Amino acid sequence: MDDLFLLTEARMRRIEPYFPLSHGIARVDDRRVISGIIFVIRNGLRWRDAPREYGPHKTIYNRFVRWSRLGVFNKIKRSELLSVSRRKKSSIVRSSR
Fold it and tell me: Can you tell which superkingdom this protein's organism belongs to (predicted)?
């Protein structure tokens, strides 16, 4: 997985609270699948062209569709935007001293 994108463990810890709970059956590795979703979207690939290291393309696609419908990615994006906004505000305050 040298050239492939993989979310850091720190980033995964930040976004995990937004993931829906698994019902009964354990999910495939979230970090690998979410990284696969990001890789496909960033590179403009078809789902079936996702590298095998991310898992089955059908799993990546299904997770994207299900979690999109649940608003998971919107919640993560909003959270990330808020944290960036807070960091900018705190750096502005520090630099004006």
Answer: Bacteria
pTM of the predicted model over 0.85: no
Tokens (6 digits) for 55: 């898992």
Q: What are the DSSP calls for 26-90, one per residue? A: PPS-HHHHHHHHHHHHHHT--GGGS-GGG--HHHHHHHHHHHHHTTHHHHHHHHHHHHHHHHHHH
Distance from C-alpha of 79 to C-alpha of 44, rounded to nearest angstrom: 24
Show the tokens assigned to 26.
């354990």
Angle formed by the axes of helices 30-43 and 57-69, to 10°?
90
Each domain of the chain, given as residue ranges in start order, spans 9-95
